[in-house]
Each structure stands twice: as C-alpha cells, then as structure tokens.
Amino acid sequence: MIPSSWTSAPDQPSIPGIQLLAEIGRGLHSVVYRATRGTHIYAVKIPRITSTQSPTLLAAQFRREASALALVHHPGLPA
Question: Which of 3, 58, 1, 72 is nearest to 30 (CA)?
Fold first, then answer.
C-alpha cells in the first residue's frame, strides 16, 4: 500500500512501467525518487545531465556504477 503522503511533483521525469511517487533526495549529479513498479516500492536514482557534461564521460560513469551495484547481493535489494 502506498501512503497518500507520497505525492508526485510535476517536474519528475517519465519512465515507462515505473511510477515516481516522491523525491527522496538530491545530490550534485543525481536525484533519487521513491517509485513503484507493480506492487514493489523502490528507490530510483536519475542522473541530472547538463549541457557542459561529456556524453562519453557520463556513459562511462553510468557503466562503472552499474557494474559496482551488480556485485551487491542483499535480501533487501531487488534482483
């Protein structure tokens, strides 16, 4: 059950199959949202891209982070 206090902001990005509910936090390079996919609740990190950032560098950073997260196995994380 999703609490009614989690509300959507109009400036949130749209991701097919995922409903962004509320912003959890933001940092220099990304924003983290509380989201649902089906009946599961997740935290979704979305990078903030500026026109001054190199797309090649951003792609490399994304792959490096995805590789590191793929090594983490915990019962509280989705498979």
Answer: 58
